[in-house]
Amino acid sequence: MNKRQARLFAIGSTVVAVVVFLGLTIDSHRQFPKLTNAQNITPAVTHGKDVWHKNNCINCHTLFGEGAYYAPDLTKIAQHRGAAYLQAYLKDPSKFYDEQRHRRLMPKQDMTDVEIADLVSFLDWVSKVDNQGWPPRPILVTGAGIGPMGALPAGQVAAVVKAAQPPGSTPAAVGKDPIALGEIVFRTSAPACAACHSLVPGVNMAGPSLAGVATRAQQTIESADYKGQAKDAAAYLRESITQPSAYTVAGAMYSASGVSFMPATYGKDLTSDQIANLIAYLTTFK
């Protein structure tokens, strides 16, 4: 290739690159309104964004991975925790932690009820932006020790569960093990149970530790305070999964005004088999 051909090639390549870049830019801007749910940007969402900046939340937290990495990314926090939990938490974070044990670092911002509600609206809008799968996994608490598999994708959990089966087990047998299948549901449901619950005694996250949950379930239904419909531990666990507000513990930090912070959608989002398998898994924690 001589100098003239090299020059023409360089010019032509630059022109092609510029055209492709402009085309992708125009296409991105064309899709922004749909991807960001622009039609759902209400005055409350806009004010919530102002509250976010006013309180310098980004000095500790990230949204879409942008910001400080001192505290968890909050891109999907509204889906993982729910509005009721976030409102109670923002009202007074100290009620959700024992400072001696958990070293609570979240300061009380002294926001008004309107500011809290609008900030939650903003975070809810953020959680519904089509961000191509970011962040890639649920929020976890450092040191929570939720188990040897952490928050692995479903395929990896299935592979680990399969690898743990006794020699000679067939794939069909592995696929029918309700406890193994229940663990997959625990790790991978949306939102994953493991995002809020630890399996280590005394390690409470957004929800209480599930260590010994089967024993506690039996004790609960035998107590005079229990007002639910369950007659045994398995039924109580089913009730807790599908109707989390059917029975709440007075004074606990996981509910407010008799309404549990746990999502009430699992009864619809999970199949009957998934719920049965999840219960089979949880009943092993005695």
Automatic annotation (TrEMBL):
Domain Cytochrome c, residue spans: 43-127, 177-286
Give the stretches traversing the membrane. Answer: 7-26
**InterPro entries reported for this sequence:** Cyt_c-like_dom, Cyt_c-like_dom_sf, Cytochrome_c550/c551-like
Q: Which UniProt keywords apply?
A: Electron transport, Heme, Iron, Membrane, Metal-binding, Transmembrane, Transmembrane helix, Transport
SUPFAM superfamilies (alphabetical): Cytochrome c
The answer, when asked if Transmembrane is one of the entry's keywords, is yes
Kindly give the PANTHER family that the UniProt entry links to this protein: CYTOCHROME C-553-LIKE (PTHR37823)
Name the UniProt record assigns to this protein = C-type cytochrome
